[in-house]
Design a protein that fits this description.
- By secondary structure, the protein is mostly helical.
- The protein is built from 2 helices and no strands.
- The longest helix is centred in the N-terminal third of the chain and has 24 residues, at 11-34.
């Protein structure tokens, strides 16, 4: 899929995105089912979403310049 010449997404990129989103959704569902206190549900869910966003950004543009970066 290409919108411009600068963006070159492959099938692997879509698979990684799907695994990240599906995994985060399943984990949030698990948190909601197993954690009894609402305060802990919210804290764990927000922490998971923050990790998802940071990992997504690292894979996309390499904000932390690790080996996972997309550059």
């Amino acid at each position: 899929m290409q919108f411009t010449d600068e963006v070159k997404w492959t099938l692997f990129d879509f698979i990684v995105a799907a695994v990240l989103l599906f995994g985060a959704g399943l984990t949030i569902d698990f948190i909601i089912r197993k954690v009894k206190r609402t305060k802990y549900r919210i804290i764990l869910s927000v922490a998971l979403l923050a990790m998802l966003i940071l990992l997504w950004a690292e894979l996309a543009v390499g904000i932390f310049e690790t080996l996972l970066s997309g550059n």
